[in-house]
Structure formats: structure tokens, C-alpha cells
């Protein structure tokens, strides 16, 4: 995962306890967009790997799954945060 996404998420959890206590909508939108860009890059990588040997795709999937899970968590939290405030 992008180090900036991971670092930001850890900072939110450490300093605020939860995203709900954070108040900067601009930053939440930026992080949501960074998560979306990460997902797009991941999809492109998978498409490219599908053209090669199957074991390369399997290795990539296994290695990247934890990052996918964390990006999904952050993306979902950002979307929920914005929606709860009518800022989608």
C-alpha cells in the first residue's frame, strides 16, 4: 500500500482513536482519492499479470492481499465519514 495511506491511517488511530473524531473533510477526500488510485493501480497490475504465467499472479495476489484489505478499510471509512456529513 502507499506508505502515505498507511501512515495517515495509523496517525488517525493514534491521535484521534477513530476517523469519526477527525474533522478535516479535505484531507479525508484526498485520502479517499489516494485509496481509489491505489485500487486502480492494483487492477492494472492484475490485468498485466494475467497475461503472464499463472504462478506470478498467484504470488502477487498472496503478497498484496493484506494491503488490499487495509486499503478497503481506509476507503470504506473515508466514504462513510463523508457520507455521514453529507459531503460525498
What report would you give on this structure?
- The chain is mainly α and 88 residues long.
- Helix content is 81%, strand content 0%.
- The chain is built from 3 helices and no strands.
- Helix 2 (25-50) packs antiparallel against helix 3.
- It starts with a helix and ends with a helix.
- The model has no long low-confidence stretch (mean pLDDT 94).
Q: Low-confidence spans: pLDDT under 50, at least 5 residues?
A: none
Strands, count? 0
The structure class reads mainly alpha
Largest sheet: none
Task: Walk me through the topology.
Layout: H1 3-16, H2 25-50, H3 54-84
Helix pairs in contact: 2-3
Core attributes:
elongated, mainly alpha, 88 residues, 81% helix
In short:
The chain is built from three helices and no strands.
Amino acid at each position: 500500500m502507499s506508505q502515505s495511506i498507511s501512515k495517515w491511517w495509523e496517525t488517525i488511530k493514534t491521535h484521534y482513536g477513530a476517523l469519526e473524531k477527525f474533522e478535516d473533510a479535505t484531507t479525508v477526500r484526498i485520502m479517499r482519492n489516494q485509496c481509489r488510485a491505489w485500487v486502480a493501480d492494483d487492477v492494472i497490475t492484475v490485468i498485466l499479470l494475467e497475461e503472464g504465467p499463472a504462478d506470478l499472479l498467484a504470488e502477487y495476489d498472496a503478497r498484496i492481499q493484506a494491503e488490499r484489505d487495509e486499503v478497503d478499510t481506509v476507503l470504506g471509512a473515508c466514504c462513510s465519514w463523508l457520507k455521514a456529513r453529507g459531503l460525498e
